[in-house]
Amino acid sequence: MDRRSFLKSSSLIAGGLALNSVINQAVAQNKSPLIIDEKHPLLLNFNENSLGMSANAKQAIIAALPGSFRYPDDARSELITHLGELYRLSDKHVTIGNGSSETIQATVAMLANKARKNNLKIQLVTPDPTFNYAELYSLPLGIEITKVPLKSDLSFDLDKMEQLANDFNGLTIIYICNPNNPTAMVTPHSQLNKWMTKVSDKQFFIVDEAYAELVEDPNFVSAIELVKQGQNNLIVTRTFSKIFALAGLRVGYGIASPDVIATVDEFVSIDNTNTAGAIAAIASLNDKPFIAYSLKSNNLSRKIVEKALDELNLEYAPSQANFIFHKVKGDVKTYKQRMADAHIMVGREFPPAVGWNRLTLGTPEEMEQFVVVLKQFREKGWV
């Protein structure tokens, strides 16, 4: 879906969510007016959810504090059960991580160990640019890393990635971030399934769906559906850091077949989820009004930014996450520094996608302030 079609098809105004209403709710949530200065910079650089966690999650943490001298086994088990029920799978299909990053790390370590035991070479095939934790965790393990540049339209070159995996004499880890970070673009399930359903014991997929709850594009279907069908050469990772706004509590998880989960759990640290994080995650899963509010707020923030980018004729990728990948005029490092001088922190450049900047979507109120500064930059000839 192109960005103009998306704008037309996802009108929040038609859905009854007015700009002032969301901004007022954001102010009420934060309980203070927006101040942007040296001590209070606008943080639009790490894809955090500026709404903050739900009130129910906060209360759940407070209620759990008296029991914090106990180990988190019960809370952790309860979270696993909730996640299994959410996807209509068993507890044995779920692994919990210190953020989804630990699940990625444990999976990479598990596969490296499997290759060593079987005297196989091992490689990681990954798009470029993408979220690079699978790459970072592969480096110290001696895994060969092969990066495949995005196509000119910023989509994954799945044909090239598949060819590299097929031609490799050994075990291949394929990392797929969907929606991709930093582009925020969805890879349609029809394209992914063409390759992923060709089950091979020499290819293993790590499908990172950190932003899945923010997606409304019908072309996206979670790879969890393949797990439900019994596929045994993949794990799907998710996080509570984004739509649920629990980034600081570090709670993530993986969904895979029981056999895969059992082997991944051998490389996961014991008691890796604290009580507060597990309890907050459970409360967040049950807080449907907050989930809906978080999604609608993000959609409206995206509209605010897209409208400004259209007015300024700045190209951007069609976003299905809580950030937008957009072009800037001139050097991205200079643009980033000028934004920092205005007390707005934006993302870095992601080579080889030169000339593009990743902008996190904060609250609608925050994005209105960002747009004011962006338009001032245009007046100065900076963008």
Description:
With 383 residues, the protein is of the alpha/beta class. The chain has two domains: 3-54 and 288-379, Aspartate Aminotransferase, domain 1, CATH 3.90.1150.10; 55-286, 3-Layer(aba) Sandwich (Aspartate Aminotransferase, domain 2). It is built from 14 helices and eleven strands. The strands form three sheets. A seven-stranded mixed β-sheet has the order 2-8-7-6-5-3-4, sandwiched between helices. α3 packs antiparallel against α11 (275-286) and α4 (73-86) runs parallel beside α11 (275-286). The longest helix has 24 residues, at 288-311. The radius of gyration is 21 Å and the shape is globular. The two termini are 26 Å apart.
Keywords:
single chain; about 375 residues; alpha/beta; Aspartate Aminotransferase, domain 1; Aspartate Aminotransferase, domain 2; 2 domains; two-stranded parallel ribbon; 11 strands; disordered N terminus
**Name of the CATH architecture of the largest domain:** 3-Layer(aba) Sandwich
Q: Overall pLDDT, averaged?
A: 92
From the 3D structure, determine the CATH topology of the largest domain.
Aspartate Aminotransferase, domain 2
Q: Into which percent range does the helicity of residues fall?
A: 40-55%
Task: Provide the CATH superfamily of the largest domain.
Answer: Type I PLP-dependent aspartate aminotransferase-like (Major domain)
**How do the strands line up in the largest sheet?**
2-8-7-6-5-3-4
> What is the structural class?
alpha/beta
The Cα radius of gyration reads 21 Å
Beta-sheet strand percentage? 15-25%
Alpha-carbon distance between the two ends: 26 Å
Largest sheet: 7 strands, mixed
The helix count comes to 14
Any idea how many domains? 2
* Quaternary state of the chains: single chain
pLDDT < 50 stretches: 1-19
Shape: globular
Q: Give the C-level CATH assignment of the largest domain.
A: Alpha Beta
